[in-house]
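Study the following:
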Amino acid sequence: MSSNKHKPHILVLPEDDANRQIANGFILDINLNSHAIQVLPEARGWEDVVEKFTNSYASTMRQYPHRMIALLIDFDENEDRLSYVKNKIPDELENRVFVLGVLSEPERLRKDIKRNFEKIGEALAKDCSDNTNNLWGHDLLKHN
C-alpha cells in the first residue's frame, strides 16, 4: 500500500482465510488500483472482525479521512448479523465502512459455482469494472 495515508485507500479486514483469498483475487484484477487496497491479516471470526474494527481501526479512520474499510464476514444465514455489525460502526464513519460477505459461508459459494476463492474474487472485481452483476447477483451474494 502507498505510504501516503492521506490519499484515498481501502483496508480489507477478512474474517478467515477463505475471505482473504477472495479479497486477494479481487485486487489481482488488472483494472483496479491495487496500491490503494491493503488486505489485512484474517481476524478468525466475524465477531473478531467487529472487535478489531472497533478497537483498532475506527480510531485511525478518524485520523485519516480518506481511509475506508471493508469488513468481510460470513453471514452464516443470520439475518440479524448485518444490523448487529452496522450498529457497532460509529455514525461519523458509516459512509466509509462496508460490510460484505457470503450469505452462508464462502465454501458454499465455491461449491455452487465451482471456482476457487481467488477466482471468485477476480470474478467479483470483473463485475465491478464491467458494471455487471453476473456473480454479485448470485443468491449467496445479492444481499451485498
Summary: The longest strand covers residues 9-14. The helical segments are 17-28, 46-63, 81-87, 106-113, 117-130.
